[in-house]
Amino acid sequence: MIALLLVPLVLPFALPPLARRVVDRVRPDAALWVLTSASVALAVGVVACLGVLLLPVALSVPVIAGLAHLIQPLEAGPTTLVMAVSVFAGGALAVTCITAVRRTQLEVRQLRAAHVDVAGLPDAGGLCVVDDARPDAYALPGGRHSPSRVVVTTGMLRALTADEREVLLAHERAHLAARHHLFLAAAQLAGWCHPALAAVAPQVSFAAERAADEAAALAAGDRTLTATAVGHAALATNRTRTVLPSIAPSAVTGPVPARVKALLAHAPARRLAPVLLAFVVLIGLAGGSALAGAASVHRGVEIAQGELPRP
Amino acid sequence: MTDSDGERRPAGELEASVLAALWAAGKPMSAAQVRTAIPQPLARTTVATLLIRLHEKGVVDRSPAARGFLYFPVADSHGLTARRMHQELDQDHDRSTVLARFVEGLGPDDEAELRRLLEGGRQ
User: Fold this and answer.
1) Which ipTM did the prediction report?
2) For the CA atoms of chain A, what is the radius of gyration?
3) pLDDT digits (tens, 9 = 90+) for A216-257
4) Exposure on the CB side of residue A35, measured as CA atoms within 13 A
5) What are the residues of chain B with a beta carbon less than 8 Å away from any beta carbon of chain A?
6) What is the model's pTM?
7) How many other CB atoms sit within 10 Å of the CB of residue B122?
8) Size of interface A-B (CB pairs under 8 A)
9) Measured between CB atoms, does A165 come within 8 Å of chain B?
10) Which of B13, B24, B73 lies nearest to residue A125, judging by beta carbons?
11) pLDDT digits (tens, 9 = 90+) for A48-107
């Protein structure tokens, strides 16, 4: 049944509502892992299914059919419908590839520019201070030639009290230590593969911010102080900020009121089991239907090659 | 936070805290002032050592005062000028015209330097 290949294309739509529940209820560091891996797994499923769905139209081209040693046309169901879906899959795959390549290039360019901006700045203990009155702070992940750095403007340092400054630094250090940029990059890449997964990327980014907030609260030993610092940093930040690569987590990403509220509540509990079960079911469904669909197409190809008798 | 807790933090984090405090103050500070401006309770000698290390790294500079030194952060003045130019450019809608006018107004030396930079011959 080639129609099974459509299931992994629809399943990602179940992820955004699940993701919202996860960031509300699960410890942020665990939520970050769960959401990112689910996004990536479903994205792989989407791309794989689009690839297999492309086969009917590709194998209808005589040259390719010859290369695949087909001795009769591939039969995968009602011809018009299968061809329409196949052409659509080809288009979707092309759009995904082009988007991914172009946006990746843009991200890399912005990351390089951000590194060039701070390249000449003195660095103490991984901190770079930019003499700029506009309050801003972000964690700049390291590259091959440049170390990772916490970049803070003087405007931001002056907007906070001494204790709040420590919270801000701890928050940005937590981003770098836990390599949150890799999670953000993975979630973004998945988002380019499917619109529903694009809706999950902001949740992943929120989970990363919450995880860094919790790490900062642990370092400061004071949740209320951390909440105040997050609030003050957000209020201070000028909206006309410099362009940053979107994988460089900044101090004020995500819905700040929700972050402050979460910090003022008790430390988050670990209620993972039901959520993990839902994700395992979701990914299992996607994987299972993708494999079954691919197996049926494979069988169809073998029949068309004359290696298997027509049923 | 106990005294030993402050001392136990990695040296890099303490250096960053001192640098942040100096920038936040916006004026030169003595070692004693720095000690009160950071939240960690550190021994006087620890603060002095941190400031000396930052000075050796070229991150802060100091000037002699009545007792000891006054410390202040080193600004990246070239970078600052470049950022100001970027800010001016960002404020205008027609970036390319502004750039064109800017280049027109450059002297022959500046123009040669700009050409050299654009051709990738960095320093």
Assistant:
1) 0.78
2) 24
3) 999 999 999 999 999 888 888 754 455 566 767 765 555 788
4) 38
5) 1, 10-21, 23-24, 26, 37-40, 54, 57-59, 73-76, 78-80, 83
6) 0.81
7) 6
8) 78
9) yes
10) B13
11) 999 999 988 888 888 888 888 888 888 777 888 888 889 999 999 999 999 999 999 999
